[in-house]
Write a structure and sequence with these properties.
Strand order of the largest sheet of chain B: 6-9-10-3-11-12
Structural class of chain A: mainly alpha
Distance between the termini of chain B: 57 Å
Largest interface: A-B, 20 and 34 residues
Number of domains of chain B: 2
Strand content of chain B: 25-35%
Strand content of chain A: under 5%
Distance between the termini of chain A: 36 Å
Number of helices of chain A: 14
Helix content of chain A: 55-70%
Largest sheet of chain B: 6 strands, mixed
Shape of chain B: elongated
CATH architecture of the largest domain in chain B: 3-Layer(aba) Sandwich
CATH topology of the largest domain in chain B: Rossmann fold
Radius of gyration of chain B: 27 Å
Order of helices and strands of chain A: HHHHHHHEEEHHHHEHHH
Number of strands of chain B: 24
Oligomer: heterodimer
Number of helices of chain B: 19
Chain lengths: 356, 531
């Protein structure tokens, strides 16, 4: 009798965490062990994991509001990303440096994201039922449009322009404005000496702060209404809730998180990447939240944190380990693509129709 | 050997322990029109599914009893078998392909073909169509029905009346057709079209085809049928010759007294003369339950029952008042005009709704009981919230306390208030829905199909609860239900809806026959302004 109960509890736990999460998590741990066996520095691997998780965390978090509102994962994340990029470029143009550059960028990013998110939300309300496809192509279109914008907008700061001709460079070094690693280095500390674990405290705190804000929001009246509209639109409507308005609200929030997320990402990376860089950035974020156990209709903060750590951990570990195993080949990049797209594919096959 | 074309002998069927048919015996002679009558859920469609060997019957364990055709026992295991034995059906919903011509639809899957070079090599499936012969056959079938419509026209764009005839033509074109089943053939037809159809049915019977005619319209049955069988709750009530009966008797037999749930009469009814809700010419575009102009007054403190057969529009009334489907008309509530098509305004002005679609509209199945209970009140009335600056967060403590109170008051059987609503039994889910409605402190409670899909014990509890709310708190209740017995057990007045309008208003103790006649639209009472 007791045994049966235990079994059921085990199955309950598996169900709760989700089989894909467990499989990918196990795979990551196996890779870590393999890496250790191959003589790689465990501290470096884990430091890289934390760094990349911190950089990507807010972008993954941006999936939560859109999924909760019933519009599915925000494949149009590039909309928010372009807002953030534009905000950073403007802040550089206006001559901000250091911390003031960071705050100015975030402020501008939020303003742009509210406008863009509102318009994007309107668009989604017009195409109910095929949000995910439309979102993907919205992201692509916006990226393409901004490629033109980066060339046409008459920025004059020499920190961003080509040495000859007009337009902005492909990558802008943030060292020039004192913005590189500005959050990562804030309260940064090491565990275990010079070659030990590096904890980018500021960046992690920023990520956790955003998590707390989103978590709080979904405990507020407005957030609960959004969730209800996502789970059961008929129920929400019968309770007098304006679902369309809530979907717009959720996508504004998602776009803001995308915009802030890219700023955190860029400072952690040290460069602002323009042009085609945002094109595919939605996919790793979608993959991460789905690995974390979210479905295309339900997502929470736990899914974000677990997902971003496992997914980024897997990528950072797989890369050097694969390079060690298959020396002289470039299998790691292929492996990354296979894993990332495989995960998205798997997760999307698990999507249960929103209309229950 | 009898001269019966078709006999159904001692047919019984159960769905997971629930007997839906008990010892049904039906005999059909050549050229006879046999009407089959019963309320929704009486077992008519299950019986027809058995006759057609529908997969759903065999998936759920088959049936007991036997079917004989021309005195021979037959095993009908699939619709294909049924077709082989010459049993055809005219569907309620049209199963026609709009882009094809009439002739093509009539000959669908029974096309007449000619050999061609390709088919000689690759087989019969690729033979060419012989349109000429097909058209001729179609013409013949249409002529039987007196249809002077051209057989080469496409289906798309034809009036519904014609589509029905084409369905029939398709059936009679089958050479071996012996038995034809009509499932509420006149439900979607206008009066003249219906008359034509009935004539066609009579004509077919004269050709020796046995006809089973399912209808709710007693007048039609009296007009066309030779015999009538009444089913009620899966039981064979009676089979009579039409000559020996009348529509009053049939209506009475159809409704009958079911398992009565009786309450001691409460004499101190607090019904007042004050009209709380006044509905004028309400129209609701609810698919399948259209309301086409209902006028009704509801007095404070009464329980008004809304009854009628499925599809007549009884469910549309409550959904329309709550603004869930698009609605037109005038509604006055508590002396003020109630804005329509605005669920929030309806809730704000003091209406609360327990939906008939418990799992679809009524509940967040994946959320806890407490969230389900307080959701509407939190969103509309701003209850159960903590205000921090411009933000309002949920007040978990208050929610918990209120949910616990509701759980004990309504006796919701659950493990805790954070159990997911989807894991409760039907009756308890229904109580959660009622709890949410009550949390809004409504002045008028709209309850639709409160006992659908819940067992008899839970039924009584839910009805008890409604009665108690009415007695103790003087809450005005409009209850919509398909189960007449239920309405009669707790309502003060029962409004019967027919074809989207009010057919009549009856006291709960009115004779069975009156209810039966009104539900089938056979008796037109004056639509009283005393309503």
């Amino acid at each position: 009798m007791i045994e049966i109960r235990e079994k059921r509890d085990f199955r309950y736990l598996v169900n709760k965490i989700g089989i894909p999460t467990i499989i990918i998590g196990t795979f990551w741990i196996i890779l870590l062990i393999a890496g250790g066996a191959l003589g790689m520095s465990m501290a470096t691997l884990i430091s890289d994991t934390i760094k990349r998780a911190g950089m990507n965390g807010i972008l993954v978090l941006a999936m939560v509001p859109s999924i909760q509102s019933g519009t599915g994962p925000n494949f149009a994340l590039p909309v928010g990303i372009e807002c953030g990029l534009f905000a950073m470029a403007i802040s550089i143009e206006l001559g901000y440096t250091g911390a003031s550059w960071l705050f100015a960028s975030i402020l501008f990013a939020v303003i742009f994201a509210i406008i863009a998110g509102y318009l994007y939300g309107r668009l989604l309300n017009a195409v109910k039922g095929s949000e995910m496809t439309i979102a993907t192509y919205t992201g692509f279109s916006v990226s393409a449009f901004m490629c033109l914008a980066w060339l046409m907008i008459p920025f004059s700061s020499p920190k961003m322009g080509w040495f000859m001709g007009k337009g902005l460079r492909e990558t802008i070094q943030l060292d020039a404005v004192g913005g590189a690693h500005i959050l990562s280095n804030f309260w940064r500390f090491l565990i275990g000496g010079e070659n030990g674990l590096i904890i980018p405290t500021g960046m992690v705190l920023m990520f956790l702060l955003c998590c707390v804000i989103v978590w709080l929001y979904f405990r507020s009246k407005s957030g609960i209404a959004i969730s209800a509209g996502g789970i059961n639109p008929k129920f929400a409507q019968a309770s007098g809730i304006n679902i369309d308005k809530n979907r717009i609200k959720a996508n504004v929030l998602s776009t803001i998180l995308g915009a802030v997320g890219i700023i955190v990402y860029s400072q952690g990376y040290g460069y602002v990447q323009l042009y085609n860089a945002p094109l595919m950035m939605a996919f790793p974020a979608v993959a991460a939240v789905l690995i974390g156990g979210a479905t295309a209709s339900r997502a929470g903060i736990f899914h974000v944190i677990a997902g971003v750590i496992i997914f980024q951990g897997l990528l950072t570990t797989a890369l050097p380990v694969a390079n060690q195993l298959f020396e002289g080949t470039d299998l790691s990049e292929i492996l990354r693509m296979v894993i990332q797209n495989g995960i998205i594919l798997y997760a999307l096959t698990q999507v249960k129709g929103g209309d229950k | 050997m009898s001269d019966n074309l078709l006999s159904l002998k001692n047919i019984s069927k159960e769905y997971s322990g629930n007997k839906v048919l008990k010892d049904i015996n039906i005999e059909l002679k050549k050229g006879e029109i046999h009407a089959l009558i019963g309320e929704n859920g009486a077992g008519k469609s299950t019986l027809m599914n058995i006759l057609f060997g529908m997969p759903v019957i065999h998936r759920t364990g088959g049936f007991e009893g036997s079917i004989e055709i021309d005195g021979q026992k037959v095993a009908i295991k699939s619709p294909h078998d049924a077709m082989k034995y010459g049993i055809g059906m005219v569907h309620q919903e049209f199963m026609l392909i709009p882009g094809f011509t009439i002739a093509e639809n009539i000959k669908l899957n029974r096309e007449i073909t000619r050999k061609n070079p390709v088919s000689v090599i690759f087989g019969k499936r690729l033979e060419s169509l012989d349109s000429k012969k097909m058209n001729m056959d179609a013409r013949k079938a249409l002529d039987v029905l007196d249809m002077d419509i051209d057989e080469f026209l496409p289906i798309a764009g034809l009036p519904v009346g014609h589509m029905q005839f084409i369905e029939i033509a398709r059936e009679i074109d089958k050479e071996n057709i012996k038995v034809l089943v009509f499932d509420e053939p006149t439900a979607v037809l206008a009066e003249t079209e219906a008359k034509n159809l009935l004539n066609a049915i009579k004509k077919l019977s004269q050709k020796g085809i046995g006809i089973i005619f399912i209808s709710h319209r007693l007048d039609e049955v009296m007009d066309v049928a030779d015999k009538v069988t009444v089913l009620r709750d899966g039981e064979h009530v009676v089979t009579k010759n039409i000559k020996d009966t009348n529509k009053f008797e049939i209506a009475q037999l159809m409704v009958g007294r079911k398992i009565s749930i009786d309450w001691p009469d409460v004499s101190n009814k607090n019904t007042t003369d004050e009209t709380v809700l006044s509905i004028k010419d309400l129209r609701v575009a609810m698919p399948g339950e259209q309301v086409k102009g209902i006028s009704l007054n509801v007095k404070k403190g009464e329980i008004v029952g809304i009854g009628g057969l499925a599809g007549q529009g009884k469910l549309g009334l409550a959904n329309g008042l709550m603004g869930i489907y698009s609605t037109a008309g005038h509604v006055t509530f508590n002396g003020t005009n109630l804005p329509l098509n605005d669920p929030m305004a309806s809730i704000k002005s003091g209406l609360a709704f327990v939906s008939e679609d418990r799992k679809g509209v009524g509940l967040l199945l994946d959320e806890s009981i407490e969230v389900n209970i307080v959701f509407s009140a939190m969103q509309i009335r701003n209850n159960f919230l903590n205000k921090i600056g411009p933000f309002r967060f949920k007040n978990s403590r208050k929610i918990r306390i209120h949910a616990k109170k509701m759980i004990s008051e309504l006796d919701i059987r659950c493990t805790s208030s954070i159990q997911k609503a989807g894991r409760l039994s039907g009756g308890n889910q229904q109580k959660v829905c009622v709890a949410r409605a009550l949390t809004l402190n409504p002045q008028l409670l709209l309850v639709s199909e409160p006992t659908r899909g819940i067992d008899i014990g839970a039924k009584k509890l839910v009805l008890d609860l409604l009665k108690k709310l009415n007695n103790e708190y003087g809450m005005t209740i409009i209850m919509t239900s398909s189960e007449l017995a239920e309405l009669r057990s707790i309502c003060d007045r029962i409004v019967i809806i027919y074809k989207g309008g009010v057919e009549g208003i009856l006291p709960p103790d009115a004779p069975d026959a009156e209810f039966g006649l009104m539900m089938s639209g056979s008796k037109h009472n004056g639509e009283g302004s005393e309503a």
